Hints:
The protein is α/β, with parallel strands linked by helices. The strands form two sheets. Strands 3-2-1-4-5 form a five-stranded mixed beta sheet. A hairpin with a 3-residue loop joins β1 and β2.
Amino acid sequence: METYQAFVGLDVHKDGITVAVADAGRDGEIRKVGAIDNTPDAVARMVRKLVHRHGSIEVTYEAGPCGYGIYRQLAEMGIACKVVAPSHTPKRPGDRVKNDTRDAMMLARLLRSGELTFVWVPDATHEAMRDLVRARQVASQDVRAGRSLIRMFLLKHGLRRAGKVWTLKYRSWLGALTFEHPAQKLALQSYINRLEHAEARKSEVEQQIADLVPSWALAPVVHALQVFKGVGLVVAVTLAAEIGDFSRFATPRKLMAYLGLVPGEHSSGGKFRSGGITKAGNTIARVMLVEAAWAYRWPPKVGAMLLRKREPYAQELKDVAWKAQVRLNRRFRRLEGRGKRSNVAATAVARELVGFIWAIAIRTTPKPA
C-alpha cells in the first residue's frame, strides 16, 4: 500500500477549481492552495507543482456534472485519484457555512482520514453506453408525460373509454373525438403530436442501443441477463450500463444495498423499527428491476415467446431462469396473500431478482486481459 505525503481535495465547478491540501499525519496542516481554471492545462500545472512540493499525493473530488475528465487526466499522469459519492460525504449537523474553500478542505481532510465513499469510474466506452441508456430514459419520461397530458385533457372534458389504453383502437378513438369548439380539437391533436414525437424518439434510441450492444465489452452480460422472464434488451442494457462491473460487489446483498432495495432501519436502545427501502444508489437501475419484477406475478411457465427467446442459451442458464420463475412467483403470491400491497410485493421480488442477476453476471462478465 502506497504512503502519500499529501491529500488533495478539489471543489470542481464549470469554470474553476478550488484546491486544498491536507498534509499527511493526524495533525497535518489543512490549507487552501488556491483556485485554478477548469482546463486540462491548468490541472496539469497544479498537479506538477504539488508533486514537486510534496512528493506522492492522492487527489479526490466529488462526482458531478463535470464528469470524469479530471480523473482520466490524472490517471494518465500516474496520479492516484478517486471520485467521491456526494450523497455519502459526512457532514457536521451544526455546520451552516458552506463555500468552495471549506468544501475543498473538507474533502482533503476526509480523504486523509479514510472517511469518504468512492464511486466506480467507467471507461470512456462504458460511459458512452450509459449516456445513451440515460437518453432513452429521458425519452421514456417524455412518453409518460405526453400520455399524462392527454389523460388530463380527456378528464377535464369528461371523456372516458373502457378497455385498454394506448392501443390502436384507443388511438383511433382519440382521433375521432369531436368538440364544441375547433380550438379544443386542435389542442388535443397537439398533445397527440407531442406523444407521437416522443414515442418515435424513444424507439430510435432503443434501436441505436440494439445496434451498439454487439460491439460492447459487456455484450455477453447483456445477452445472458435476457434469459430471465421480464428482462428484455432495454432492461439488460440498463443494468449493465448503470452497475458496470458486477464483480466489485462481493455478495448479492451488497448489490441490493447499492441499488437501494434493502429495508431501512431506525433503531435505538431496545427498540427496532424497520421502514421502507432505502432508495439509495442508482434510481434508474432500481426502477428497471421493479418493472421486471411484475412479470413474476403470474404463474411460472415457458410460453411460445419465452421459448423462442431461450433457444440460444445454455441449459445451465435456462435452469437458473426457471428456478427464478418458481421462487419469485411463490414469493409474490405469499406477500400478496399476507395482505401486502402489490407494489410492495414487486419491490421485494425485485430485491430477490437481484441475487439471480448477480450470479449470472458474475459468470458471464469477460475477464480482463
